[in-house]
UniProtKB/TrEMBL annotation:
The keyword Translocase does not apply. Keywords: GTP-binding, Nucleotide-binding, Nucleotidyltransferase, Transferase. Transmembrane segments: none annotated. This is 2-phospho-L-lactate guanylyltransferase. It comes from Friedmanniella luteola.
């Protein structure tokens, strides 16, 4: 059958692989934050990254030995398959493990990605994938030193993440995906968050729905961290109240405890962030 050479071709089937370490050990450079907030931020950034990847690929794999991770990702609404590490060493070993699983299922295009891109959009992921016709190519982070994505088409992934990974990937034969090569800028795909300072530029691009509630509305900074205790009290508008460890009464909207079983029992303690007298997000 004749085909129109100008017709838009469907995207090639592609798989994405992310290696996730337990949040207890993740994002150590965010150690200036209270530990519950550091852990929560690491989690929400991973969720937003995975949600964007899932909107652009056919198979999304997370490599981890965390026993409850699959159910937790499912509760977050993500269609993700968790692959055991099977003795893989470090992030690069885990990505190689996931890439091998994807290749065994017939995927010739595999993308390895970091898990801290909270502003990532599916369109940018597809732009990166479409730019690679064969071999390996990498997307440097905003600093130009690190790497956020590595794509392999028809060849092994061979990841060299962590440290000065952009140079390491280049030296290994991978092609740098410049904006000129991509045909457009993809700042959201380059904006990884390793420190609290990095969160500002990411917030300026627009964060995903999991990370957004951790920031003060209309601002580019994290909200105040605390622990709250639920009560049976309500304010004059009938909104439920909680009490912070500092003794402040805070409005606790149902939307702030998304993912938790409601109604909450009186006296339940939750980690939370708040601003202007309202809890923005609360979690166990």
């Amino acid at each position: 059958m004749d085909t129109d050479p100008g017709a838009v071709q469907p995207p090639r089937p592609a798989a994405a692989v992310v290696a996730l370490k337990p949040v207890a050990h993740a994002k150590s450079r965010l150690g200036t934050l209270p530990d519950p907030l550091r852990r929560r931020l690491a989690w929400t950034m991973a969720v937003d990254t995975l949600r964007a990847l899932g909107g652009a690929v056919d198979l999304l794999l997370v490599v981890s030995d965390q026993p409850a991770l699959a159910s937790r990702l499912a509760r977050a609404g993500l269609d993700v398959e968790v692959v055991p590490e099977a003795g893989a060493h470090g992030m690069n070993g885990a990505l190689d493990r996931g890439a091998a699983v994807a290749a065994a299922r017939g995927y010739r295009t595999v993308l390895g990605c970091v898990g801290d891109l909270p502003a990532l959009r599916p369109a940018s992921v597809r732009t990166v994938l479409d730019a690679v016709d064969g071999g390996r190519a990498f997307l440097a982070d905003a600093s130009g030193v690190g790497t956020t994505m590595l794509v392999a088409h028809g060849v092994p992934l061979d990841p060299h993440f962590q440290g000065r990974s952009a140079a390491a990937h280049h030296q290994s034969g991978a092609v740098p995906l410049t904006d000129d090569r991509l045909g457009t800028g993809v700042p959201d795909a380059r904006c990884d968050v390793d420190t609290e300072v990095d969160l500002g530029p990411a917030a300026g691009l627009g964060l995903g729905p999991a990370t957004t509630p951790l920031l003060v509305p209309g601002a580019l900074r994290l909200a105040t961290s605390t622990v709250v205790t639920t009560t049976g009290w309500s304010d004059d508008a009938g909104r439920p109240l909680a009490v912070s460890t500092e003794g402040h009464r805070l409005v606790l909207p149902d939307a702030a405890v998304d993912g938790l079983r409601t109604p909450l029992r009186i006296g339940q303690r939750l980690h939370a962030v708040h601003a202007d007298g309202v809890v923005l997000s609360a979690w166990l």
